Amino acid sequence: MARWEPDARGRMTRAALDLYTEQGFEQTTTAQIAERAGVTERTYFRHFADKREVLFDGSHELEGTVVAAVVDAPPDAAPLDAVGEAFALAASALEERREFAARRAAVVAATPRLQERELLKLAALRDAAAAALRERGVTEPAASMVAEAGVSAFRVGFEAWIASHQERPLAHEVRDALAALRAQAAV
Amino acid sequence: MARWEPDARGRMTRAALDLYTEQGFEQTTTAQIAERAGVTERTYFRHFADKREVLFDGSHELEGTVVAAVVDAPPDAAPLDAVGEAFALAASALEERREFAARRAAVVAATPRLQERELLKLAALRDAAAAALRERGVTEPAASMVAEAGVSAFRVGFEAWIASHQERPLAHEVRDALAALRAQAAV
C-alpha cells in the first residue's frame, strides 16, 4: 500500500457509510471499514478517533464556515440575519452532495449512538455561533437564543431538503425555516 | 431488605449523583449506586436501563407536562406563547430543587456520555412539543422552529438560573430568554 493516500479520508467515510447502510453500525468494525477503503486499521485511527467520528468529518469545517460568516457579517447586520446567512452559506457545501447526505442522515436516524454524536456536534456548533455573536457585541440570553435558532433552521431546512423530491437548494429551505420562526415571533 | 421501598427511585437518583460527583461517572458502578441506595442491583435495573438513565428520571414527566400544556393552551394562543408558557410551567417542577439541579448539571457538563444522553432527551422533548403544535394546526417548518425555540429558552433559562445567585424563579429566566429571541426577530 502506498504511503501517500489520495483522498483516504473520503474513501474511509464512504466505506463506513456503505457498511453501516448494508449491515448496520453495531455490526461493522473499524477493520472492515479500513479494508474496504484500502488502508490499514492504523491509518484509520490516525484519522478518526472511533467508529462514529468517520461520519462527522465535515463538522469542523462547517463550524469554521459558520463562525467566520458571523464574525465577518456587515457591522450593521441584525444578529438573526447574520446567523441565518451564515447557515445558508454553510448549506452550500452540501448542495452537491444531496444523495450522500440523505444516506448519511438515514443511518444516523437509525442509530441512537450516532444520533447522540450528531447532537453533540450541533451543540458545539451552536456554542461556537453564540460565541461569535458575543464577539459582535450581542449579549446573553439573545446570543444563545439566536445561535440556536440558526442551528434549528439548518436542521429543519436539512430535513425538508432531504424529504423533498424537488430540486430546491438547501439554502432556500434554511432561509424558509428561519422566516417561519420570524413570522411566529411577530404574532 | 423490605420488598416495599419508599422513594427507592429518589434514593437511587441521589446516590448516583453523589457518587458521580465524588468519584466520577466512569468510575462508578451500578452495584455501588444500589448499595448506597440500600437496594439490590436487580432492583436498580428494574427501574433504570443503564448508568445514565438514573439521572434522567424526570424527563418523561417533563415531556408530559409540556405536551399537555401546549395541547390545552387557549385556542387563540399564538404558538410561541403556548410553547413559552408550557416551558415556564415545566420550570415550576424544578423551582424547589435548585441545589440538586445545579449539582446534576455540573456532573452532566463534565461527562460527555451524560451530555449526549441529555441532548437526546431534549431532542425528544422538542419533537414531542412540535407534534403537539401540529395537533393545534401549526404547519411545518413553523411547528419545529417554535418547538425548538421553547427548548432553547428552557435550556438557556436554566443555565442563567443555575449561574445566578439571585433568588429569581426559573420560569422568569425562561420567559426572558424567549423574549430576547422575540426582540431579535423583530429587528
Molecular structure report:
- 2 copies of one chain form a homodimer.
- Chain A has 187 residues and is mainly alpha-helical.
- Chain A folds into 2 domains: 8-54, Homeodomain-like (Arc Repressor Mutant, subunit A); 58-185, Tetracycline Repressor, domain 2, CATH 1.10.357.
- Chain A has 9 helices and no strands.
- Chain A has helices spanning 8-23, 30-37, 41-47, 59-72, 79-91, 98-109, 112-135, 142-163, 170-185.
- The longest helix of chain A has 24 residues, at 112-135.
- The first copy, chain A, is elongated and about 55 Å long.
- Chains A and B meet through α7, α8 and α9 of A and α7, α8 and α9 of B.
Summarize this structure as a short list of keywords or feature phrases.
2 domains, homodimer, Tetracycline Repressor, domain 2, 187 residues, mainly alpha
